[in-house]
Automatic annotation (TrEMBL), chain B:
Protein name per the record: ATP synthase subunit c
Family: Belongs to the ATPase C chain family.
Protein source organism: Chryseobacterium suipulveris
Signal peptide per UniProt: none
Domain V-ATPase proteolipid subunit C-like: 7-60
Record's function text: Key component of the F(0) channel; it plays a direct role in translocation across the membrane. A homomeric c-ring of between 10-14 subunits forms the central stalk rotor element with the F(1) delta and epsilon subunits.
Keyword Transport set for record: yes
Mode of membrane association: Multi-pass membrane protein
Length: 373, 64
């Protein structure tokens, strides 16, 4: 999906002259104007491998792979554990199994239907597992409704339970005394920050009814971002389906709690001439959908870009395979990792902040017309 | 075609860089003039930067 090859290649071209002594297979200079398809050098092979790994990491998966061990005889051993697969097929009903059934490109037979995992999508196939591809290498097989507990879903459930536990125990503590204990000492300033610096100034006097959502979405995104940076962490907030769901909730809450003024400003902007009103109507309507769309794209792009950059830098060590790269890139990765921690907080903050701004727009009371009289 | 896409991505990054740079510069100037308003300026700066960034990311993903 993401052809970051370009970026890495750009990097490579600047470094390859400096590290040229390690190049074993320097292709003979091709004749001017002709393109020669040179066989893949060692470096390019590593590059392909790094890219494959990155693409795999960014995507959701049906099983939890921790690492892949490459045996001397060329076979691969996957370390990890399978996750439950649940899917619904119109013809054959609901199916449940473990994802290990799909290992090694096996065709799974369940309730009379044959299914196969192809690029992390469950497809309906015939008994031989034939997958029909169109000219863009997309499968044209019938898809099924997939409700599987994939690793993103697993991570969301874990985060939800953790949040219930942390904030539930915090709430119980506050009933006993107003002094925070334990982990509450860390979270109380954050909660107060969201109330005093995000909700109150942006939403106004009606801020209380939005606090539940703002706090939930802030800590949910923050926890998932931080988990994504930990070892075995999963890129959940870098999954467009999840950010889409979050933005959709913000959108729905905004529309359903909006007052008369909000709708008036969208459909019939007061205080401007009628021709302008007609021009502004479609723009405002479009703006209604662009706002949550920018929310979902921002979070998704920031988080997956962060993961890609960190992995690209680690991957470069294996591409160059020399001492300078071995020292420089881990250091660079470390610095970028710190930046990613900042981004993890910043993106959670910005999502919450912009949600609050949109809620504020929906609740604004306008007095400027009276001022003109 | 790969090449126009790469050039497009480069243009997007140049534009975003200029945009966010101007936001940061203006916010810094404002903070230097009115240090007591630094908190408010920072919030406004982050929102504006986030909006610029959002458009840039949308363009970059369209390029992909």
């Amino acid at each position: 999906m993401l052809k970051r090859v370009v970026l890495v290649l750009g990097f490579l071209s600047t470094f390859s002259t400096a590290f040229a002594q390690h190049e074993t297979a320097v292709a003979t200079a091709p004749e001017h104007g002709t393109e020669v398809a040179a066989p893949l050098s060692e470096k390019e092979k590593s590059l392909e491998e790094v890219n494959a790994f990155k693409q795999h990491h960014i995507l959701d998966s049906h099983s939890f792979n921790i690492m892949v061990e490459k045996k001397a005889d060329g076979t691969e051993k996957h370390w990890g554990f399978p996750l439950p697969v649940i899917f619904y097929d119109k013809a054959n009903g609901l199916h449940t199994m473990m994802s290990s059934a799909f290992d090694h490109d096996q065709v799974v037979e369940s309730k009379g239907g044959h299914y196969k995992l192809f690029h992390e999508k469950i497809l309906k196939t015939d008994a031989n597992g034939t997958i029909n591809l169109d000219e863009h290498h997309h499968a044209t097989n019938e898809k099924v409704l997939d409700f599987s507990i994939t690793k993103s879903v697993l991570m969301i459930i874990v985060t939800a339970l953790l949040m219930l536990w942390i904030f539930g125990s915090m709430a119980r503590n506050y009933k006993k005394s107003l002094v925070p204990t334990g982990v509450g000492k860390i979270f109380e300033p954050l909660i107060l920050f969201i109330r005093d610096d995000i909700a109150k100034p942006n939403i106004g006097p009606k801020y209380k009814k939005y606090m539940g959502y703002l706090l939930t979405v802030f800590f949910f995104i923050l926890f998932l971002n931080i988990f994504g940076l930990m070892p075995f962490g999963i890129n959940v907030t870098g999954n467009i389906a999840i950010t889409f769901a979050l933005a959709l909730i913000t959108f729905i809450i905004t529309q359903f709690t909006a007052n008369k003024n909000y709708w008036q400003h969208i459909f019939w902007m007061p205080g401007v001439p009628v021709p302008m009103k007609l021009i502004m109507l479609p723009i405002e309507l479009l703006g209604l959908f662009i706002k949550p769309f920018s929310l979902l794209i921002r979070l998704f792009a920031n988080m997956s870009a962060g993961h890609l950059i960190v992995m690209s830098l680690i991957g470069l060590i294996y591409v160059f395979k020399n001492v300078i790269a071995g020292v420089a890139f881990p250091f660079l990765t470390f610095v970028l990792y710190l930046l990613e921690v900042l981004v993890a907080f910043l993106q959670a903050y910005i999502f919450t902040m912009l949600s609050a701004v949109y809620f504020g727009m929906a609740n604004e009371e306008h007095h400027h017309e009276e001022a003109h009289h | 075609m790969e090449m126009p896409k790469i050039i497009g991505a480069g243009l997007v990054v140049i534009g975003t860089g200029i945009g966010i740079g101007k936001i940061g510069a203006a916010a810094l100037e404002g903070m230097a003039r009115q240090p007591e308003q630094a908190g408010k300026l920072q919030t406004a700066m982050l929102i504006a930067a986030a909006l610029v960034e959002g458009v840039a990311f949308a363009a970059l993903f369209a390029v992909n």
